[in-house]
Backbone:
């Protein structure tokens, strides 16, 4: 029996988890350390704090421990 709980994507990023923030534009990539402010599944938008600047931004969850800027 397939239930709705079997169809949900796993949480790849947990609140408080250290993540790598990746930004790519015009073929140039940059990365920075971040901290997830909320949990997220692959493809979801979450708030992430840039640990270098202290700025909180929205980012797309790519995979476990990796997010990308949504600018």
Residues:
């Amino acid at each position: 029996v397939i239930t709705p709980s079997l169809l949900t994507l796993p949480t790849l990023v947990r609140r408080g988890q250290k993540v790598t923030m990746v930004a790519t534009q015009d073929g140039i990539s940059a990365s920075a350390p971040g901290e997830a402010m909320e949990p997220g599944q692959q493809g979801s938008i979450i708030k992430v704090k840039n640990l270098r600047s202290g700025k909180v931004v929205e980012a797309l969850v790519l995979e476990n421990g990796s997010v990308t800027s949504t600018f």
In short: The CA atoms of residues 23 and 30 lie 5 Å apart. The chain has a mean pLDDT of 92. The helical segments are 4-7. The longest helix spans residues 4-7.
